[in-house]
Input
Amino acid sequence: MSKGNTGNHDKLRGLLVKIGKDSNSQSVPNKAKFDENEFVESCLNFPASPHAQFFMFSRADQLLNEGKYKEAAQYYCKYQALTFKQQFLQQLNKKKLRTCLDVQKGKVSLDSTVQDGLKETENQILGMLDHHQESSVENMLKDLPNGWTVLQVSCYNSLKHTRFKSTKKDSAMQDGNPNLVFVRLTAGSDNNVVVSRVLSPEDTGATPYLMELQNILEEMVLLLTEATDDRNKYWNMRQRLNDRMQSLLKSVEDKWLGPVKTSLLGNLPSKEEEKVSQVYEEITQLLESSTQSETVENRTKLLLSGAKYLSQEQILSELLSLFYNCDQDLVISASNLISKYSKTLLDFEFVSREPVILLLDPELLGFPWESLPCVAANKQAMSRLPSLQYLATMWRFHAKDSTSTVNEGIANDSIFYILNPDKSLPKTQERLEGVLKGFKEWEGLTGEKPKPGQQAQVLSKKDAYIYAGHGGGTFISSEEIKKLRIRSVPILLGCRSVELVRLGRNLDPLGVVHSYLVGSSPAIAGFLWPVSDADLDQWTIEFLKYWVSGQEKNLLQAVADQRSKFTHLVNSAGLVVYGFPISMKSK
Output
């Protein structure tokens, strides 16, 4: 770590010490006290400085140490995805200014439609501002559908894993695996906050997880781009990469996350929740511990809901940390009982759970959380969004719009596709053309690019846009996408279609998916990295038949159900969905 970076840390930590002293002293005049809000606001000019997030996460860490979990959750959730937040606010203010200028110049009249549009834009701006009353975690959760789980995964502040970049290269952390904080929020619940720390596993000399993922992907790109006549060698190397990916995912789940991996699973239906409560009562009676804090109760029930995917050692370690005041022999007996129930009463492997929406730290955006063994085995419906503020703000926007595809669903006669527009994938066209044309109500283009303005029309008017070809299927600029009011759900079945790139040392990774989100797209599906065309094409055929035919109408659940249909794990792990749970409309 450079001397300058260490200095930044020292200054910030010095501020935290000063805050603690000021709050405990009555003799310090108000003008001498540190103004936390003023400091944070000074860091949020464009582009956003990481100082604000680092400072607020440090405050959250202090609150965690004091057992103030809900207060800590506020700090973690409000200072997430700062670069995207500024992009979104910038576009909203531009939109508001353009409308006001058009009214002033007489280009449009200030009728009820324009006034409603200005009011909605202002509401979105207020929803994204930290100081607004609606930005508390409780208020942001209150309008979400009951049972939804929002899971924020943040890197825990430390000097070893710094938020300040010491090098220009955007590479995985080389010094080890970062400590994590999981903030699990449940909509429609009074006891809705569970905060868990996940410490980095002990250094065994093995390649850090994030770097191993980077290595696998780099080798896969070389394998896909370098021509070879030795097909046996090629397939053997593909299999080795699949094996390494499988080993990586299993190691992350067992050695890094441990029992906290149950946070990745959604809430159970009420019938199964009753079983969890029944076992919880039995466990507390066994431990002779009838009065427990809200935090202990929440974490214990979370443990029980995912016991199917935990080893007895993981169950025991979690119980020992939660019931540290209880007799150890009783805790061991309780872990044995839970392990027994995990094969009977607590076996929820084939139970459909409520969706989980991931809010990921910038350092963790490239990791395939959706493909961890417990998530894949449970076929957990899961999506991603930049922040809780964006989730709450845009859910209110879509929920009140009766014509939004979030409410109406995707109509089968409102789908547009583009297949192999640059004519570089003739085999893909051969495999998919008949299938796509088989959906008689669809419109589309095969072997040609859209005309100027055509894609903007598709995104604004159609319910879904399906792309199959090289790249992300975007034929207009990111800035043009941001200006649209997007109705469509883009399904981008191409290499790197939702890849994220860091454009500066202090900026979060961004990609075209964020432009779609700024444009209010309700959901976007795509791939984080390159994938092989034959495997993707076969999966596309099976997925479309499964989803569009209505075997599973919900997009998130359909993706989760069909993820295992890929031949290669490296391909399936790259598939992610951003946005809201959205479904095909009933015929």
